[in-house]
Amino acid sequence: MDLENQNRVKDAADKFGAENVVVLLGAAEAEAAGLAAETVTAGDPTFAGPLAGVGLGLSVFHVTEEEMKEQFDEAVYDEQVGMMEMVLDCDEIAEEMADIRSEFCKYL
User: Fold this and answer.
1) C-beta of residue 6 within 8 angstroms of C-beta of residue 16
2) pTM for the full model?
3) Half-sphere exposure of 41 (CA within 13 A, CB side)
4) Fewer beta carbons within 10 Å, N or C terminal of the chain?
């Protein structure tokens, strides 16, 4: 997660309260999604950005997870995500997200 997005997430958590912020990711690989998820929950593991050492514990999901898919209009989801979903390893991404949530999320 780049420094600008880290700053946006931190600002939103400060403004609205961490318990009221949900981060929705769309990374194409489980490892990249996991790194971003860890950043917004436990803090930037590279210690390079505004979230370095800042464990916000935010709720974090990937757009392809079933609980997120249910939140979207099916036609819109298919149009915007459907093609990518066919080439992603959605099970691996979901497993990575679940692991991060169970270890670091404070708000579910």
Assistant:
1) no
2) 0.93
3) 25
4) C
Per-position DSSP letters for 41-76, written without gaps between them: HT--TTS-STTTT-----EEEETTSHHHHTTS-HHH
Calculate ∠ Cα 65-90-74, nearest 5°: 50
Tokens 């950005």: give the residue: 49
pLDDT per residue of the chain (108 residues) written in tens, 0 to 9: 999 999 999 999 999 999 999 999 999 999 999 999 999 999 999 998 999 999 999 999 999 999 999 999 999 999 999 999 999 999 999 999 999 999 999 998
Amino acid at position 1, single letter? M
The token pair at 48 is: 């390079």
